[in-house]
Request: fold
Amino acid sequence: MPHPEGGYYKETYRSEIVADKKDLPDRFKSNRNFCTAIYFLLTSGNFSAFHKIRQDEIWHFYDGSPISLHIITINGSYEKHMIGSNLENGELPQYVVKGGDWFASEIEAPDSYGLAGCTVSPGFDFEDFEMAEREDLIGRYPDMKDIINKLTR
Reply:
């Protein structure tokens, strides 16, 4: 199904065990499943727009062309990581995006796709999801205007 950030996803796992809100950090407003996992498909004609969630998200590369992960850290620095299977080219088969960091992704190869898995703990809930507003993000990080313009809607 289409993901609000761009690309497509299919939830493959949601733990039956639930953590009570009282046992979670204050940034969580309700109970959370211990863990969730999805498949995430991205094509070269699309991108995943800058967004953030409250918890860490582990990316696992499965197939296709490498996926470029663009990250604006909570400290305001920009990072780019390639998720893929070609270790000799510096690609990483797994990468953790820290909770609270803004991130976006794209396939740079033409006419291609990338298939990844994303694991989140405590489990993902759309209550934890925030899509970036272009002008707000540029206002915070004006030196990153080009990449923000490219990867926001």
In short: The helical segments are 134-140, 145-150.
